[in-house]
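Encode chain A's predicted structure.
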Amino acid sequence: MNGRKRVWADIDLDAISHNLGVIRSRIREGGKIMLVSKADAYGHGVIPIARHVLSRNEVAAFGVGDSEEALELREAGIDAPILILGAIVEDEDELVVANDIAICAHSMSRIRQLEREARRQGRKCRIHIMVDTGMGRLGPFADKALELAQVVVDSEWLTLEGVATHFSSSQNVDDPFTQLQARRFDEFRDRLIASGVPVPVFHAANSGAVLFEDGATHDLVRVGAAAYGMIDRKKPGAETLRPALALRTQIIYLKDVPPGTPISYNRMYTTPKKTRIATLPIGYNDGLRYALSNRWSVLVNGQKAPIVGAISMDYCMVDVGHLPNVRAGDVCTLIGRDGDQELTVTDWADALRTVPYEVTTGLGRRVKRIHRPERCRPSLAVRSTRTSTTPPRTDQERAAEVS
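Encoded structure for chain A:
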């Protein structure tokens, strides 16, 4: 037995630390880093990563997509500040407030509902206002955002912890629309300050803005793709990032076949000559998209071998007839480096005409995430999250952590 899984993702925690160091070198002195960890840390496995970066004091907070992701962190003992970057629905208010989770509020009705729930529980709720400067998604425009901020400040049960915006095109180097959004956000910040609304934290920059723009001048940056090394390293500013994820499987069966042998469903591929076909236990249920049938290669013993035939739910086939000494149990790399060859997540995304985040978040639950090296704290002080009665930290304590 070789001790390997059917299919696994090696997650390099030191690469994440390295990337966070690159990010820190590009933000202003005293600026804080929020690690965007939604969608299970973009498919990388959120809990081991959260413990790792906290053990090294590399981030100040975590940004998640919804309340379930926030509560997952709390249940794992992650007591750092957490911000829900997306929307919540009414039934989520109780647990969010009870577990001291900050919320991006987008409407007056949601703010009032959170205020009622905070009053009922007798504990304050932390709010961030997301102003729309050009994303056209969540958040009000400037005038309404100013009104919402004032309502939060005036409430006995709400704390205005931050004001934010979201750049729509910062993945493009020197994008003029990102620069326009940054100016709009700075103008809104000036309006808030002039109106006397106290805001501890202003944040706008995501990964692209940190790497490609002068967009890291506020109190906090929100980084996901850059932290996980998922930015195209050919872009200026991203050259020194290190990919954190490698996707691997192993050969489970080898078969010599004659010319004219159909391979997989619907005979999408027929062997043109005598060759050797390797079967790999990875398919579209694991994230190897059907659209890559006959269009992608894997690395076997440091050399490329093409996927042939239709990718099925559980398996794919690879032509290894040109490679010597291939054996069952040999490791196959679908994303990552093997010898002098490398297949990147951006290569995979380009082949699918999609974004790298769709690739890693699409890796199925059968893909075992193996975090190396294991330097995470073995345990953290776990709070009783879903039935918590622990008093929240004071506003001063919170502001010191994220501002």
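The chain has two domains: 31-226+390-402, 245-372.
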